[in-house]
Design brief:
Number of strands: 6
Order of helices and strands: HEEHEHHHHHEHHHHEHE
Shape: globular
Radius of gyration: 24 Å
Distance between the termini: 49 Å
Strand content: 5-15%
Number of domains: 1
């Protein structure tokens, strides 16, 4: 057999290509995004964080989110329904709290508050007029969900809703971790009517300041700065105050515990690969999702 002779430079170059190709297949640098991976009972869960507002410049999303989504068979979100279905169900739920006509909120709010609300809901005046007809928790919730517009972020472009639409287009099964009533109960309250009016007046007077606080989270999220996001998120809580801790447990701890249990149940009853997207705050702070999974013995991998 004739031997093939190869010069030293060519041999070295060939070896270099082989070495680079070999090591590249073993070397992986995690992204800076809010993306992790965990294996539970041989099911894979791609854990991702979202924020509930964005803008057109936020898209396309980083590759880490899209790759995690593409690898999954099923999609897990906080709520299963799309935006239109949610709005319809919210109004149906609120019907039990419809006010008498002489109590419609716009008849009792200050002129200054009415003007600010009109500006906030400038593209949703019909909805705003509807909200006035119900007990104030509904309008208070709408203000909290819409005030991001004041700093250039729009709930219309919410990241979780983007993946809801994408999953429907791709015909991937969508699983909701919460039912709608669970989330509405986080906002609902029963107080005398005079106090309801004061709550809205306060929410309107503070919404610009609260929107600026929210924008710190959005900016950190879209810059893929996990440390900055965590600091901004935790800064909003004073855990030395019992009332604050109670609110945190209601919104985060209790739901995180329930969600992790759902992951374990799904991993057994419906084995597969799951793309999980919930509010990014659920991955930080006491009793966060990652911490709870690690306490159960699962290994969280940054991806």
């Amino acid at each position: 057999m004739k031997k093939i002779k190869m010069s030293l430079p060519v041999l070295l170059a060939t070896c270099a290509v082989v070495i680079i190709s070999f090591t590249a297949s073993f070397y992986y640098e995690p992204s800076n995004c809010f993306t992790w991976k965990v294996e539970i009972n041989k099911s894979i869960f791609y854990l991702t964080g979202s924020v509930h507002a964005a803008n057109e410049e936020s898209f396309p999303l980083p590759k880490a989110y899209m790759e995690s989504y593409s690898k999954a068979d099923k999609v897990i979100l906080e709520l299963k329904d799309d935006k239109n279905a949610l709005e319809q169900k919210v109004m149906q739920y609120a019907e039990k709290d419809r006010l008498k006509e002489d109590q419609y909120l716009h008849r009792h709010l200050s002129a200054a508050s009415l003007q600010k609300l009109s500006q906030l809901f400038v593209t949703d005046e019909l909805k705003l007029n509807q909200y006035y007809q119900y007990e104030s928790w509904l309008l208070n919730m709408a203000i909290a969900g819409t005030r991001s517009r004041l700093t250039g972020y729009n709930p219309f472009f919410a990241i979780d809703m983007y993946f809801n639409q994408l999953a429907k287009k791709d015909k991937k099964e969508i699983i909701g971790l919460d039912d709608l009533q669970t989330q509405l109960l986080l906002f609902e309250y029963e107080v005398p009517f005079e106090m309801q009016v004061k709550i809205i007046e306060k929410a309107v007077s503070e919404m610009e300041g609260e929107a600026k606080k929210d924008s710190l989270l959005f900016e950190a999220y879209f810059k893929n700065n996990i440390v900055q996001f965590e600091n901004a998120f935790l800064k909003t809580f004073d855990f030395n105050k019992p009332q604050m801790k109670q609110a945190y447990d209601l919104v985060f701890t209790n739901r995180n515990i329930k969600w992790v249990e759902q992951f374990e149940k799904l991993s057994i009853e419906k084995p597969g690969k799951y793309f999980v997207m919930v509010g990014a705050g659920h991955y930080f702070g006491p009793n966060n999702i990652r911490e709870l999974l690690e306490h159960k013995g699962y290994t969280i991998e940054k991806i």
